Every structure is written in structure tokens, then in C-alpha cells.
Amino acid sequence: MAVLGAGAVGLSAVMAARLTPARTIVAVDVVPSRLALATELGATHTIDSSKEDLRPRLADPAGPRGLT
Fold it and tell me: Is 12 left (phi over 0), alpha (psi -120 to 50) or beta?
């Protein structure tokens, strides 16, 4: 699962995803402190989209099946 934006709603989505069978939870934001909090709340991967190209980074943790 990918969550685009780690504000209040995005972080809620990260927490909800931890309660599901989702094995990969990716939080994307431009604020490092929000990404750190997303990790604390259950994100397995984080992407700072102000510094990294989103497409290849999302493909990496998703594996051959992609994000489901």
C-alpha cells in the first residue's frame, strides 16, 4: 500500500494499514519529520518525493507483483 502524503489523514491510513495483512506500507511526503513519524506508526518504507523520483522507488519495495 502506498500513502501519498503523511499529514493527519495519511498517517491515519498508515495506522489502519498496519491492522490489515498488508506487508508493504510506503509513506510518501516531502517533510522528513512526517516520514519519521510514519515509520514509528507502521510504514515499512518511506520516500521523500522532493529528493527522489517516485516511480522507481515505489516499484522497488513492491516486488514483482507491484503494490496491492
Answer: alpha
